[in-house]
Amino acid sequence: MRLVLHTSVMVAALRSGLGASRQLLVAALEKRMTLLASVPLMIEYEAVLTRPEHLQVSGLSVREMNTMLDAVAAVAEPVRLSFLWRPTLTDPDDDMVLETAMNGQADYLVTFNQQDFDEQAAKLGCPVALPRKVLHELRRKR
Asked: How far apart are CA 46 and CA 27, in angstroms?
């Protein structure tokens, strides 16, 4: 399964060890699914995940968070953004997430912000889903 994890999913994965988001991140790190990432998306992950409020809740230092991001980059399949659909979404920061999913031929763009993606992603043929739905499907395919 080929997935793009929206930044909201990465935040949830690091703030709680119990949820579907964490389980998807672990599955990516264990290479049980293919995580897709572009350079702009990795930069976004770093910018958001190293904010003081996320570091505090996760209990990680900036150095530890960067080590985790290095691990994500090491297992992710790099996606080159060869065609830009901008502006497509109401939040310009989300355009690069959709572009990563489209250029990487993702099976799902995994997000908590479905309403921000649904209409435009559907027009482009990119399925959008919540982490728990994707985790359920990942488990079913084993």
From this structure: 20
